[in-house]
Amino acid sequence: MHQLNRIETGVPQTGADDGQVFYRVFHSVASRPYNVANIELFLAISVLISNRPVRANLYLIKTQPGVLFFMTVTYSSYLKVDELLKCQHPLSEGPEHDELLFITIHQSYELWFKQLLHELDFLIRLFNQGEQNRALHTLKRVDSIYRTLIQQVDILETLTPLEFMSFRDRLSTASGFQSYQFRELEFLYGAKDAKKLENYPEGSEHHQRLQKRLESPTLWDAFLGFLAGQGHDIPDSVLNRDYSKVADPSKAVQRVLIDIYRNDPLVSEICEALVDIDTSLQQWRYRHVKMVERTIGSKMGTGGSSGVGYLQSTLFRPVFPDLWAIRSEF
Ligand code: HEM
């Protein structure tokens, strides 16, 4: 067992997190730098400090010969709350009271977009591995997130046209139109459009991310691959299509889907969960355009489009058209 000479505790000098405790541990291995493999030493310190041999209770922040500096993990340190709360910077003078809401809601959307990409990438892997139960579970989670996103439009609808006008000029050309995560999601669902890449400088990280999504199989491709793996007759031309293009609706796929609805309850539940997501995507677009209409009327968008007219042209376009085409066949 290592000899621990002394432990001092105190609050950290930096950071506003008052829940965080800082430990300075003096030990006998004076000249030896800390070694991650030295788990025995770590556990000894952990027991001394927290009475529990739980390594996760503490994290090492720096080392000096003979001294180790630790902090406990707290709510704020784990979630980086201080950093997060420093990311809202209204641009209006004052600033205008309502600008914070506008920033907060967009940032929370972007966080959910990140989570959706995380879930959908996982879902594609599940389809590739044929794990249908977990795929269904993940699809339900994705749709729950969308239902939350649709509801959040309620909050923005409390922003009156006058309130929005109090800071709109400051947005300059910034628009949700430029949200690269939203475009990634579109590509992932199958709404591929190489022109959308033009909004991001070539070579930039955002451009590269979108380029990769453009060339990758979509959620629908992964689902059809899963069906093929189950022995369904999905044509090779459908499975090995050019992924950078929108997939054409396929009568052969629709025949397979009709058969699944009639004979395979679990996979037909997966199909219905995909329809739930498709419906939610369209509902979000509808709620967004109505919110935009009541806030800016027929004005142009900050992103340079005609505004409401442009947004209306994106309505009622399903991402999984084959699943809609079969509805009248039963
Ligand atoms: C007062 C609030 C909002 C207004 C007035 C507004 C207005 C608009 C307008 C006019 C457009 C068309 C593009 C343009 O020319 O700018 C647009 C597009 C878009 N907005 Fe909003 N928006 C608002 C809030 C939001 C929020 C909270 C989000 C969430 C991320 C969002 C996401 C998007 C997206 C993704 C597009 C692109 C849609 C597409 O191209 O299919 N918007 N918005």
From TrEMBL:
It catalyses: L-tryptophan + O2 = N-formyl-L-kynurenine. Heme binds at H288. The gene is kynA. This is Tryptophan 2,3-dioxygenase. GO terms for biological process: L-tryptophan catabolic process to acetyl-CoA; L-tryptophan catabolic process to kynurenine. Belongs to the tryptophan 2,3-dioxygenase family. Homotetramer. Binds 1 heme group per subunit. Pathway: Amino-acid degradation; L-tryptophan degradation via kynurenine pathway; L-kynurenine from L-tryptophan: step 1/2. Substrate binds at F102, I103, T104, I105, H106, R168, T302. It comes from Microbulbifer aggregans. Heme-dependent dioxygenase that catalyzes the oxidative cleavage of the L-tryptophan (L-Trp) pyrrole ring and converts L-tryptophan to N-formyl-L-kynurenine. Catalyzes the oxidative cleavage of the indole moiety. It is an enzyme of class 1 (oxidoreductase). Its cofactor is heme. HAMAP family: T23O. The keyword Glycoprotein does not apply.
